[in-house]
TrEMBL record:
Domain of life: Eukaryota
Amino acid composition bias (Basic and acidic residues), ranges on this chain: 1-11, 181-214
Organism expressing this protein natively: Dioscorea cayennensis subsp. rotundata
Matching PANTHER family: E3 SUMO-PROTEIN LIGASE RANBP2 (PTHR23138:SF87), RAN BINDING PROTEIN (PTHR23138)
Pfam name, any one: Ran_BP1
Originating gene: LOC120269504
Official protein name in the record: Ran-binding protein 1 homolog c-like
PROSITE patterns: RANBD1
Chief place where the protein resides: nucleus
GO molecular-function term, one example from the UniProt record: GTPase activator activity
Comp. bias intervals (Acidic residues): 12-22
Length: 214
């Protein structure tokens, strides 16, 4: 009589397991796989932040949010240029679903009705061409969302200060060059006047010599 218990029925129908026997045979692998170095483009960057999240992109034509992928979102700072970019890859395929620079004008806003999510605008390059996108990212906790927003805003603020400093230094350098240039022009004018005065004096002296009787 068959049992109504699915687990017990599986046990009754399962054939008896054969005793494991060691035949001593050695089976060599058919294909030998060699290690292949994979470059991600992140080798020259330092990781400032790395969090798990789910990303959405706003579809303007459909007027709705569409999922881009679930994975790891990172903030990476280039070791030489100092530029910071936001990169997110899908967990299993590692396909890039967000890739853009963090700039001083970037603004993070908490998503209405969900304190685990935030939204922002960016010029994204994840599809191989620059596109103006509106992103929404959702984290597993409120803490991670706040950490992400605060870190991005902090980076943007620092970049803005650096730009202001560079602008002031450029203006100062331009002013100094202008003063040097004006000074050189003044000296050149004085030199020209001196030369003209000397030439005039020489000419007058020569004229007086010519008027003297022999």
């Amino acid at each position: 009589m068959a049992s109504n218990d699915p687990e017990r029925r599986d046990e009754e129908e399962a054939p008896e397991a054969a005793d494991d026997e060691d035949t001593g045979a050695h089976v060599a692998p058919i294909v030998r796989l060699e290690e292949v170095s994979v470059t991600t483009g992140e080798e020259e960057e330092d990781v400032l932040l790395d969090l798990k999240a789910k990303l959405y992109r706003f579809d303007k034509e459909g007027n709705q949010w569409k999922e881009r992928g679930t994975g790891s979102v990172k903030l990476l700072k280039h070791k030489e240029s100092g530029k910071v970019r936001l990169v997110m890859r899908q967990a299993k395929t590692l396909k890039i679903c967000a890739n853009h620079l963090v700039i001083p004008s970037i603004k993070m806003q908490e998503h209405a009705g969900n304190d685990k999510s935030c939204v922002w605008h960016a010029t994204d390059f994840s599809d191989g061409e620059l596109k103006d996108e509106m992103f929404c990212i959702r984290f597993g906790s409120v803490e991670n969302c706040k950490k992400f927003m605060e870190k991005v805003e902090s980076i943007a603020e620092d970049l803005g200060k650096n730009e202001e400093k560079e602008s002031e230094e450029t203006t100062s350098a331009a002013g100094l060059l202008e003063k040097l240039s004006v000074g050189d022009e003044s000296k050149s004018e004085e030199k020209s006047k001196d030369e003209a005065s000397t030439a005039q004096t020489t000419e007058e002296k020569k004229s007086d010599d010519d008027k003297k009787p022999e």
